[in-house]
C-alpha cells in the first residue's frame, strides 16, 4: 500500500474554522488536545518556538501538527530543539496513513533544517500512541515530562 499524499498548510483566517473543527475519537481525547486548545497553548508559550500546520489531503483538512521548532538549548521548561508537541488526525480520517505520511514530512523538514533528532511524548494508557511512534523508530529517553513519557527519534 502506498502512503497517501498529504501536504502541510499554514493556518489562516480562511481555513482556521475547518481546521479547528477536526476531532479525535472520544477515547483519544485524553492523549491529545484539540486544535483550538493547541493554538491557544502556542500563543501562550512563545518561548517554545511553536510551529504548526494543518495536514491536508487534497483540499480537505484531515489533521494538525505542532512542533517546538529549533529551540535554543537551555530554555527552561521546553524540550527540544525539535519537539513534536501535537499530532492529530481527525476521527473520520484515521487508519488511512495520514498520520504516518504527515510525520514523515515533519521528519524530513526537521532534517532539512539541520535537526538530528525529534522528541515527542505521550500519556500512557489504554489506546496510547506509543505503538505508532515505535514503528517509526522512536525510543524512550528515560525522561518523564509532566506525566508523559518522552521518546526520541534520532536521524
UniProtKB/TrEMBL annotation:
Enzyme class (EC, first level): transferase
PROSITE patterns: GNAT
InterPro entries: Acyl_CoA_acyltransferase, GNAT_dom, Sper_AcTfrase_N
A GO molecular function held by the record: diamine N-acetyltransferase activity
Keyword rRNA-binding attached: no
Annotated ranges, domain N-acetyltransferase: 6-155
Keyword flag Transferase: yes
EC number: 2.3.1.57
Keywords in alphabetical order: Acyltransferase, Transferase
Protein name (record): Diamine N-acetyltransferase
Organism: Saccharothrix tamanrassetensis
